[in-house]
Write a structure and sequence with these properties.
single chain, mainly beta
Length: 246
């Protein structure tokens, strides 16, 4: 959702495209063709970055930034792999975008988002193939970039430099990370919820067993964590905000 538009990413093994539809009546406002005709599953990230509004996503063998008002291409990075699932994240502190993917090759990139045209050789600040996630989306928390691989290895990076601060075996993950009040939440496929404080070493503040498998990302609202398990909808915590007046 952006201003008066619903923007839909349709990357697939065919004539992929992105289309913007009017919220009010579904009228098509703009449509752009996507290169390479390869499936991906990413939701575009829309942020005001570098003095302009950008819609950024990885998919179909590239990382691209568009103007969400018009669909105009702002910049593109070739590759670095074929398919992507995890969404990009942006750090206000470093001014960098972070991309993780994917299939068949594994790459993690920190990208400077102020370029134009093809910036493959000029705007990648750091890259690694350590700790890469295909399905779970990563998280920025202050000066730290946190991620967990599908196989369950959690990493905390210095977001500016790409230096690894710690790594920890957490078992297999599909759920994306979430954060609140300076903590990051990891939920593995077996229903273990870990509350982690980002830092130079691994610090698990709390660990809870939810009692069933979990593959969905948690939702946070008003002091509570909502988790969709294999059999149940689970709510943790007490509501901290007053109910809105009706």
């Amino acid at each position: 959702m952006f201003e008066d538009k619903v923007i839909v990413n349709c990357d697939h093994d065919g004539d992929g495209y992105i289309v913007a539809l009017a919220k009010t009546d579904g009228k098509e406002l703009w449509r752009i063709e996507r290169p390479n005709h390869t499936r991906s599953y990413c939701v575009p990230l829309i942020r005001d970055i570098g003095g302009r509004t950008q819609m950024v996503l990885s998919g179909t063998l590239c990382v691209t930034s568009y103007d969400p008002r018009t669909g105009k291409l702002l910049w593109i990075i070739d590759g670095p792999t074929e398919q992507f699932v995890a969404s990009l994240v942006f750090s206000e502190q470093t001014g960098l975008l972070y991309m993780t993917g994917g299939f068949p090759e594994h790459h993690l990139l920190a990208i400077k988002p102020d370029g134009s045209g093809n910036v493959t050789n000029t705007h990648i600040v750091w890259r690694t193939n350590k700790g890469v996630a295909y399905v779970p989306s990563p998280m920025i928390q202050g000066e730290h970039f946190l991620i967990v691989s599908d196989s369950g290895i959690g990493h905390c990076f210095d977001a500016k430099t790409g230096d690894i601060l710690w790594e920890e075996r957490l078992r297999e993950h599909h759920a994306s990370l979430a954060s609140a009040e300076g903590h990051v939440y990891f939920i593995n496929d077996f229903g273990t919820l870990r509350t982690v404080k980002p830092g130079k070493s691994y610090q698990a503040i709390a660990e809870s067993e939810l009692g069933e498998k979990v593959f969905a990302s948690p939702a946070l609202s008003e002091g509570q964590i909502f988790i969709r398990g294999e059999q149940s909808l689970i709510c943790l915590g007490k509501r901290s905000a007053k109910t809105a007046s009706r």
